[in-house]
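Hi V.,

Quick status before I head out on leave. The structure for the redesign project is tokenized and pasted below; the design run finished overnight.
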């Protein structure tokens, strides 16, 4: 198991370096690979946990991406020219946004319940912490690459 952990660390460092010095906009597959390695290392999943964990996690990630795409296209895409929309049209968009957010919240609750059946409560919380850590790390690397970014 220790060898696998070392391999994951090396892979993570390799992907991190590639991400930092690679393309201007790293593609989603590279980020996804980095995230998988990062989560796997941090959660220290057993092989049986990993076998049950990743299908649930990946399905949830796809669902969250779908919600982001819906929000972008169906709500915010229409708000680009908000001045030309009537109050009634904006009210409808707001209701659609609330419905979408409620669906997203329900999906997150289901995910937590489903993932809890596979890993301990401690690893479930560690997953949430790890995801936030990954996002922070990715944002830090992006800012460094951009020369400091916004402060």
């Amino acid at each position: 198991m220790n060898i696998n952990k070392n391999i994951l660390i090396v892979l993570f460092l390799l992907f991190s370096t590639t991400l930092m010095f690679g393309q201007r906009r790293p593609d989603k597959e590279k980020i996804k690979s980095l995230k998988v390695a990062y989560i796997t290392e941090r959660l220290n999943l057993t092989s049986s946990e990993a076998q049950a964990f990743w299908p649930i996690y990946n399905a949830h990630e796809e669902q969250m991406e779908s919600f982001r795409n819906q929000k972008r296209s169906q709500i915010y895409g229409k708000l680009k020219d908000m001045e030309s929309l009537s109050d009634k049209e904006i009210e409808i968009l707001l209701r659609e946004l609330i419905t979408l957010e409620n669906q997203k919240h329900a999906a997150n609750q289901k995910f937590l319940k489903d993932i809890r059946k596979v890993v301990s409560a401690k690893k479930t919380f560690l997953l949430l912490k790890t995801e936030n850590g990954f996002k922070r790390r990715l944002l830090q690397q992006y800012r460094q690459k951009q020369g400091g970014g916004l402060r």
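Above is the designed sequence. Residues 12 and 34 are 6 Å apart (CA to CA).

G. will cover questions while I'm gone.

Best,
W.
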